[in-house]
Write a structure and sequence with these properties.
4-stranded antiparallel sheet, 32% strand
C-alpha cells in the first residue's frame, strides 16, 4: 500500500512530465473516457497490404534514398482538379547522406513532398533556392503553412533573421524573426515571394530584444474571415486578422491566445462548431530525452479565449492544455508541431514529427536531431481530440487514410485501456512506518533535508 501523499506525489510527477520538467514515459490521464461518445468510423472491414502504412513515413528521393527528416509538416490536398496531397517541411537536410563535398550538411529551403495515397510520398524538390530579399542571407525558413485562396497557393513560413532595415534595429541582431509568404498557381511552384513580411518582427524590449515570431497558421472561417496565428515561447502566441489578399496584418489588432513560455506551433482546426487550438510544449529538439508533446484547447470564436477540457484558459497563469499526444513507451519521443486534416471518409488525421530515441541524430552530428514524418488518426472522445484514442504514436502497421473520393474508412476508433489497481503485492509495497525501505533507490538523490518519512507518509519537496 502507498499513502495518499505518495499517490499525490506520483500524480505531480506525471503532471511535470507532461509540461516537460521530467523526461520519463508518462501515464495517461486518470479519468477513463466515455467510449459511448467516440465518433464511429465507417469501416467496411477491408484491410490489405496496399492499404496500410507504418511510421515513420519515408518519402522517396528519386535515385537518392529517402527523406529521413521532415520537421513541422504542413499538409494540403491539391485544388482545381489536382488529386494529389502535398507536405512542406522546415529547412533541414533530407537524410544522413545529404552533405556537400566538404562534408557539411545541406539545408533545403522548405522541402516539398507529394503523394496520391497519403502513404507513399516522393520528394519533389525545394520550394525556394534563395531567401526573400528582406531576409538575412543566412536566415532559416521554418515551420511552413500552406493554404489555397482565390486560385492561388499561399506558402507561409517563419524567417529566423531579417535585415536591419526591416526590424528597425541598426544592429544585425540574428533574432529578429518575422512571418513571410510566397504564392504560386501550382502546389509545387514556382513560388513568388511577397516583398514585405506578413507579420513584422515584434519588439520585446530595447536593442536586439525581439519576441519569437515563428510558426504561422492561417485559417478562413465559414464567414470568409481570414486569421493568422503565430508566436512561440518568448512572447507567447497571438492571432491577427489577415488581409483579403493574404499579404498584410495590423499589429494593433493582435490578440493574445496563449501565455508566454509554454506553447508554440499553433494549429487551428474547425470541428463540430468549435475551433480547436493544437499547440506543442517543451523542447522540440533534445535528442532521445525530448519531451515535446501536443496539447489542445477550444473556443467558439477564432480569436479565443481557448480553454481546455477542464475549462482552464490558455491565458491563465496556470495555463490550460488537454493532452493530445505524448510518449507511450515505444521508440518515438518528442512528438509534436502537428497539422490536422480530414480524409475523404470523414476521419480526422494528424501529421507531425517525432524523434526515434534509438536513432536521434544526423550521422556525425550529435545534438542535431532528425525529425521523421509521422501520421496517425485522431479520435474525438467527449468532444476532445486524442491521437489513436490515447494510444498515441503508432509503430506498427496501420490502416491507411481515405486519400481519394470513394475510398472507405479503414480505421476503426480504438481507446487506450486504463489500468486499474489489482491485488496488493506485499513485496513491492511500503507502509512508510520507519526508515525508507531498501527496496527503494534514488536515480539522483536530492539533499537529505528535502525528503523524509513520518506518520506513515513519505514526503518530498518538489
Amino acid at each position: 500500500r502507498v499513502s495518499r501523499f505518495v499517490v499525490l506525489f506520483l500524480t505531480l510527477t506525471l503532471f511535470l512530465t507532461y509540461v516537460g520538467a521530467v523526461h520519463v514515459v508518462p501515464a495517461r490521464a486518470a479519468v477513463v473516457p466515455d467510449i459511448s461518445s467516440v465518433e464511429p468510423g465507417l469501416s467496411d472491414g477491408r484491410l490489405g497490404l496496399t492499404d496500410t502504412y507504418t511510421n515513420p513515413l519515408l518519402p522517396d528521393i528519386p535515385s537518392d534514398g529517402v527523406v529521413e527528416s521532415c520537421a513541422d509538416p504542413a499538409i494540403i490536398r491539391g485544388q482545381a482538379g489536382d488529386d494529389a496531397w502535398y507536405i512542406y517541411c522546415t529547412t533541414d537536410p533530407l537524410n544522413d547522406e545529404d552533405q556537400n563535398p566538404p562534408g557539411q550538411y545541406n539545408f533545403h529551403l522548405i522541402p516539398m513532398l507529394r503523394s496520391t495515397d497519403l502513404v507513399t510520398w516522393s520528394y519533389m524538390g525545394d520550394a525556394f533556392t534563395e531567401r526573400p530579399t528582406w531576409a538575412d542571407p543566412t536566415a532559416g525558413l521554418w515551420a511552413p503553412d500552406i493554404e489555397y485562396h482565390d486560385g492561388l497557393y499561399y506558402l507561409y513560413f517563419g524567417v529566423t533573421d531579417v535585415k536591419p532595415e526591416v526590424s528597425g534595429e541598426p544592429e544585425d541582431c540574428h533574432a529578429d524573426n518575422a512571418i513571410g509568404v510566397a504564392t504560386a498557381s501550382s502546389p509545387l511552384g514556382p513560388w513568388t515571394y511577397h516583398d514585405t513580411p506578413v507579420v513584422e518582427p515584434r519588439r520585446g524590449g530595447p536593442g536586439c530584444n525581439f519576441f519569437w515570431t515563428y510558426d504561422p497558421d492561417v485559417i478562413t472561417t465559414d464567414a470568409g474571415e481570414r486569421y493568422i496565428y503565430y508566436g512561440s515561447y518568448y512572447g507567447g502566441i497571438e492571432v491577427r486578422p489577415l488581409s483579403e489578399d493574404g499579404f498584410a496584418t495590423d499589429p494593433d489588432q493582435a490578440v493574445p491566445i496563449a501565455i508566454p513560455n509554454r506553447y508554440e506551433g499553433a494549429e487551428v482546426h474547425l470541428h463540430d462548431g468549435w475551433y480547436y487550438l493544437f499547440v506543442s510544449a517543451s523542447n522540440c529538439c533534445n535528442g532521445p530525452i525530448t519531451g515535446y508533446s501536443v496539447f489542445a484547447g477550444r473556443s467558439q470564436e477564432p480569436t479565443g479565449p481557448f480553454v481546455d477540457k477542464e475549462g482552464v484558459s490558455f491565458l491563465a497563469g496556470r495555463v490550460g492544455g488537454t493532452p493530445v499526444i505524448s510518449m507511450n513507451g515505444n521508440q518515438w519521443v518528442g512528438l509534436g508541431h502537428n497539422d490536422v486534416f480530414t480524409d475523404f471518409a470523414g476521419q480526422t488525421w494528424t501529421v507531425y514529427h517525432a524523434i526515434n530515441r534509438f536513432d536521434p541524430y544526423f550521422d556525425g552530428a550529435p545534438g542535431f536531431d532528425k525529425r521523421p514524418l509521422m501520421l496517425d488518426p485522431i479520435v474525438w472522445v467527449d468532444g476532445w481530440p486524442m491521437v489513436r484514442g490515447g494510444l498515441w504514436a503508432s509503430s506498427h502497421e496501420m490502416p491507411a487514410p481515405a486519400a481519394q473520393p470513394g475510398d472507405p474508412n479503414q480505421y476503426s476508433p480504438e481507446l487506450y485501456t486504463f489500468p486499474q489497481p489489482g491485488t496488493l503485492i506485499a513485496a513491492l509495497s511500503d507502509e512508510f512506518t520507519g526508515p525508507i525501505s531498501p527496496q527503494w533507490s534514488w536515480v539522483r538523490e536530492p539533499d537529505p533535508n528535502t525528503y523524509g518519512v513520518e506518520n506513515g507518509m513519505f514526503w518530498f519537496e518538489t
